[in-house]
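Feature request, filed as a ticket because there's no other form

It would be nice if the structure record came with a short human-readable summary line next to the tokens. Right now we just get the raw output. Example of a typical job, pasted below so the devs can see what we mean:
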Amino acid sequence: MLWANFIEAFRSSATPLPSPWGEVFGPLMTGSKDDLVVVGQIGQSLDGRIATESGHSKYINGPAGLNHLHRLRALVDAVVVGVGTALADDPLLTVRRLAGPNPARVVLDPNGRLPASAKIFANDGVRRLVISAQGAICAPPAGVEIIALPTTDKHISPSAILAALADRGMRRVLIEGGADTVSRFLSAGCLDRLHVVVAPIILGAGRASFILPPIERADQALRMPIHAHQLGDEVLFDCDLSTQRLPIGRAKTST
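Raw output as currently delivered:
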């Protein structure tokens, strides 16, 4: 089946979704707690690193892992990155490796650090949004929407971010990076799914995939149901966080 046909079936809520992608992406069609579906994505080495100590990360994942990321982008309404990732990588956040629509691009930039020349702000017909702190000086290019939200300890609440995007019609959201941003959404109970794509390499040292509060005992670790999928020579761990996700959007009603 062509990927473009799968996108059409996915967006029209056709069930069951056809193979080979239905098993992987089917859980992203509808939310379990409300009308939002939020998926985080991390690409990492076997030893849990997303970059070397110098910050180099292009590319830890190979073609299959990158194709998976672009498929995720094609299926969501918005892709979200933190300003640190935007400054370090200057990503396009477009769907280029396969067919599919480009999602709205959202950068979390509480203090207005991202320059107007950033590729995220490219005027290509796709919605572009900056989420900043209330009172911050933020001057993106014309046409970029600014959402000013309150902060706590210099951070904007993940639930407030998702609620603001939902108010603007974006209800299927990809939290793409970096590690700090994905970790904050995970800690806040704001992810339905977490896709971890593990590449067959060992970096030995470097930046960790997750930055979470420490625990004292292994039995206090966050546990969840997972499904493993082979992506070429890489492995996708699809982690189901739906039972831990806090309600944010319009609550689901029983029928």
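Something like this underneath would help us a lot:
The radius of gyration is 18 Å.
Residues 63-75 form the longest helix (13 residues).
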